[in-house]
Amino acid sequence: MKIAIVCYPTFGGSGVVATELGIALANRGHEIHFITYKQPVRLALLGENIHFHEVFVPEYPLFHYQPYELALSSKLVDMVKLHKIDLLHVHYAIPHAYAGYMAKKMLAEEGISIPMVTTLHGTDITLVGSHPFYKPAVTFSINQSDVVTSVSESLKQDTLRLFNIKGDIDVIPNFIDASKYNHDFTDCQRTMMATQNEKIITHISNFRKVKRIDDVVKIFYEIQKEIPAKLMMVGEGPEKEPAELLCEKLGIANKVIFFGNSNEIDKILCFSDLFLLPSETESFGLAALEAMISSVPVISSNTGGIPEVNVHGVSGYLSEVGDVEEMSQNALKILKDEKELKKFKAAAKKEALKFDINKIVPVYEFIYQKAFEIA
Ligand code: GMT
């Protein structure tokens, strides 16, 4: 099959899922065309079956906002015609489902029919998409998709609650390629980050308000009062600077390392003992899954789709959003007892393996067939 994948090419979870899916589909013999404004960050190599087409938006001073959707839908039309693409798979509803729909309509004018699959990822529904300014267009473009998928049951329920959706939504969870997190081949370099007796706590995100970065710092503050520990903060975003200031204020700046964005998540997780994800809302929590596959237990909030990934008392612990005290106590319960830590590490990996890429990618292929039948 020739598949066009539209996504955000950044470090965000939706872009990562779209990229990993495209690579896996290419490995299974499909011809994949990524269509976006920059080469996706996790797409290291373009291969025989993998192509990237840049959407270029020329600056024009008359426009206060440059019309990306227009450039994207035009690019989709051109690429579908040039490469004889069979199917569009757009990740993140805004504005990709809308641009995809416009491309479909333009192609139909030329007698070309192409099915479109839309995958909802989270904030396109829970935060941004349901805003009154966007809601009619998001509802419309979801309803015009031939097949709609969501990355968790929780996100499906949110979508049905917040929008007037006419068709089905298929739940296809985020997935993980376990072979990329095989520590037998990774030099963990733990000693570069911490001394032997220090536990390593990690948080990875795009440092937006929704991630409750303050809570990450406060949980770590409580942990380090009782045991020697270091905190690894990985990612970039608006809450990074306030977090750095909070660390200074609490007198723990020497115990916290801010990495910025990293393409070496597997190496960082390799030497981590515990992962913190106290988000306000989270449709799935891909970062938690990446931690778990690296045998890192997760202390998280119990919001959104996180309980579908992190199993309370097995791969980590879940608490109400904002319950820093309970999260800190749960973290210490795991970290203070070596036997307990070992047990949680093994269980985290076992749970993560349920989301193995080889189980999930065929489900997408099945969905593509369904889209052909519907379109
Ligand atoms: O977590 C983010 O802020 C990035 C965001 C995105 O849209 O790129 O991630 C969302 O999609 C991921 C992949 O499906 C999910 O694992 C994340 O839970 C989801 N984020 C939120 O719902 C906040």
UniProtKB/TrEMBL annotation:
Any single biological process term in GO: bacillithiol biosynthetic process
InterPro entries assigned to the protein according to its UniProt record, in alphabetical order: Glyco_trans_1, Glyco_trans_4-like_N, Glycosyltransferase_grp1, Thiol_BshA
Pfam family of the protein (one): Glyco_transf_4
Domain Glycosyl transferase family, residue spans: 196-350
The Glycosyltransferase subfamily 4-like N-terminal domain, residue ranges: 11-179
GO molecular function: glycosyltransferase activity
Highest taxon, organism lineage: Bacteria
Protein name as annotated: N-acetyl-alpha-D-glucosaminyl L-malate synthase BshA
Organism of this sequence: Kordia periserrulae
